[in-house]
Amino acid sequence: MVKPLSHEEIHLPCDPSRFQFDTTKDLAPLIGFVGQERALQAIEFGVNIPSHGFNIYALGENGTGKTSSVRHFISEKAKTAPVPNDWVYVYNFRSPEEPVAISLPPGQGVNFQRDMMELVSYLRITIQRIFDSKEYYLQKDRITDGFQVKRKELFGAFETQAEAKSFRVQRSVNGYNVVAVNVSGEPISEEEFDTFTEDQKDEMREYRRIVQEQLDDVIRILKDEDKKTKKALTDLERTAALSVLENSLDEIRRKYSGNEKLNAYLDEVHEDVLTKLDDFKGDVEEPKGQNSQTPIVKTAKQEPDFLRYSVNLIVNNARATGAPCVFENNPTYFNLFGRVEHKFQMGATFTDFTMIKGGALHKANGGFLVLPALEFLRDFISYESLKRAVREKEVKIEDVMERYRLVSTAMMKPEPIPLNVKIILIGSPEIYYLLYNKDEDYRELFKVKADFDSRIARTDESLGCYASFIASKSASEGLLPFDAEGVAKVVDFGARLAEDQGKLSTRFSDISNLLQEANYWALKEKSSVVSGSHVRNAVRAKICRNSMMEDRLREMATEGTLIVDTDGELVGQVNGLAVYDGGDHRFGKPSRITASVYVGGGGVMNIERQTKMSGKIHEKAVLILSNYLGKKFAVKAPLSFTASLTFEQLYGLIEGDSATCAELYSLLSAISGVALKQGIAVTGSMDQNGGVQPVGGVNQKIEGFFDLCRFRGLDGTHGVIIPSRNRKNLLLKEEVVEAVRDGKFRIWTIDRVEEGIEILTGIPAGDAAPDGTYPEGSFYRMTENRLDELRRYAKGPQEDQKKEEEEEESCGGCGDGCRED
């Protein structure tokens, strides 16, 4: 019979004496990371390889150091990487809705922005001063006076010729009119014109036609002269401003020599300033009349807009000491790609290129961008747009909602900026494999997988790293130092998280939380160090905070509301063990598994499956169980029974195969009629050959059944059967260890299901003979006999009569059977 485990085998506490220090204050802080060599090598490879598409996905459980590792590596890499260029947007004079992007060496973006502001301020003052100068007015008056002299000469000659033909020119609102006059110089009225003879009238009409043609010639000449005068005035203004403008622009060109795009922009600025010189004048001179003697006055004009000469600096690396490292924890589309902002005025919205705002991609360009995968994928527009940006190697600022509008609107479309960034996604394994298997683009763009393990080997080195980690956290978080016993209890906690006696957990966020909580209990007791009792109190307090559901279920089981028998023996019933995971707390719960058997040919029926409360894995486990029965008891004849299996008082879905052994024992008990000990619970999976396979949550399962038995009173008959392959996972709490040491609770490990039968019934299962039969008195012989009986019942009375006739024939027909005297 299998012997129960000793108390040394169910727990592997860390010995405080192996630590050669009084407190962690004596230790140096942890340098580097604990374990994770595979993941760290992958990150180093992904960070350093320059090829396109080798972006990184860092996956692993929460708290395994993904973010801190990524931050460390990219920070170190960024220190040696060159500082990327600044980026600015400037006005596009040819297509204002498409601002131009210009790249400048780091730190020169803000300088260029300042230079353009100073240029505008300088031009506004200097050009105005030139236009107000005496020399400018003298040259301007010379041009305008020349035009006036020419005008007077032309009109004087024309008026002389017109007067010679008795005509005079009058100015009106609509221009110039030719009017016939009499001898006294007065305009001829219609009555006076009617007194003329026809010859006189015709002569006057002819003279009028000639004078009008002469007037048209004069006006045409004056228009040409006016154009020449305006051109001369424009040339005068351009010439006056040109020297100032060119000198200023040449100075800027020298500062940013070699930047062709910037020089092209300055050429555009040069031409625009010369064509809009009126904007640089403080006032406008408006003559009140061409010939009037009214003095010229200056009137105020609308404030000009010099915004087109501004520089919108969207990436400023002036203070950077290496490549940028951007951590964007809210990766919405606008936070990643930037936006074009709008202002509301008088009920309408307007925008311009100075309202373009860069996003995380602009800031990280030339460096590294780290994104949380789950938050990133919640915005499907961000995910698709980022893939497009990485694939096309450029980042665009656009209105993503434009495609969803029924009516398109005119929008600003800034020039795309070339993109060179290493992207690191941090997330769970589930998201990684979902993207890898469902998205072909993802496989091409994120070729580096950094897989963080949640466990490391339990060695002297890893124990030293744990102690150094505690020292680092104590120093950085301002915690009390931990003594050797406190560190040992933290190691025990890490081993429990790993659920393996030979492993330690790398979920250091949980370890850090424990350190904080243990420090609280030490401060509460006014202790100068954190010892093992404080760590123990912290663990128990956290369990207490999160275990209300567990306590409520145990209370219901103790009261009998949830029926779980822990004493005596019953046929067809065994206690199985399940694990409930609420996220913040896992605990084990015993459940009654019952079986009933009757005559029929339906085989083993899973009631949970019939009611659609069973998962696929559990359904598979029941089929394995059925095949095991067939292999053991249906080699010569088919099984002729119907059996039902169920988890009593189960009101939710059941999944998993960890109850396969318990279900088998319940079924065999129902078939054989042999009672099972109710003080022993069972967990374990099995294969078709009867081999017992390991299961998960073995510590929680044992402790869940132990707590129920302890509340009812331990008497040495209680225990749990688990797979032998789960022995290394045993890291039970101190109460269980003490009960096992005192012989009040036992834990058995088995490799085959037959071993568990003897533990539950006290009867050996029995080994099959060469002819397939089992020895008398064995459990399987009892089961086989009962199955034969069920076969006969299934065949009916005729089969019994036929068997009797066969027996009579075998004894010669004497009718007395074949008894031997």
Please give a structural write-up:
With about 800 residues, the protein is α/β, with parallel strands linked by helices. About 45% of the residues lie in helices and about 15% in strands. It contains 26 helices and 31 strands. The strands form eleven sheets. The protein has a seven-stranded mixed β-sheet, sandwiched between helices. A five-stranded parallel β-sheet has the order 9-14-17-1-18. A three-stranded antiparallel β-sheet has the order 3-2-8, with helices on one face. A hairpin with a 2-residue loop joins strand 11 and strand 12. Helix 4 (about 135-165) runs antiparallel to helix 6 and helix 20 packs across helix 21. It is elongated, with a radius of gyration of 49 Å. Mean pLDDT is about 85; it is low at about 285-300 and about 815-820.
In short:
This protein is an alpha/beta fold and 821 residues long. The chain is built from 26 helices and 31 strands. The strands form 11 sheets. It has a 7-stranded mixed sheet, sandwiched between helices.
Task: Describe the structure using short key phrases.
single chain, 821 residues, alpha/beta, 7-stranded mixed β-sheet, 5-stranded parallel β-sheet
SSE layout:
Elements: H1 37-48, E1 56-59, H2 66-80, E2 86-90, E3 100-104, H3 108-131, H4 134-164, E4 167-172, E5 175-180, H5 190-194, H6 198-255, H7 260-275, E6 284-286, E7 297-299, E8 311-315, E9 325-327, H8 333-337, E10 339-340, E11 343-345, E12 348-350, E13 356-357, H9 360-364, E14 368-372, H10 373-377, H11 380-392, E15 394-395, E16 417-418, E17 422-427, H12 429-438, H13 440-445, E18 448-451, E19 455-457, H14 460-477, H15 484-498, E20 503-505, H16 508-524, H17 532-546, H18 548-559, E21 569-570, E22 573-581, E23 586-599, E24 603-606, H19 607-610, H20 616-633, E25 641-647, H21 660-672, E26 676-677, E27 680-682, E28 685-686, E29 692-693, H22 698-712, E30 718-723, H23 734-741, E31 745-750, H24 753-761, H25 779-795, H26 797-810
Parallel strand pairs: 1-17, 1-18, 9-14, 14-17, 22-27, 24-25, 27-30, 30-31
Antiparallel strand pairs: 2-3, 2-8, 4-5, 6-7, 10-13, 11-12, 15-16, 19-20, 21-26, 22-23, 23-25, 28-29
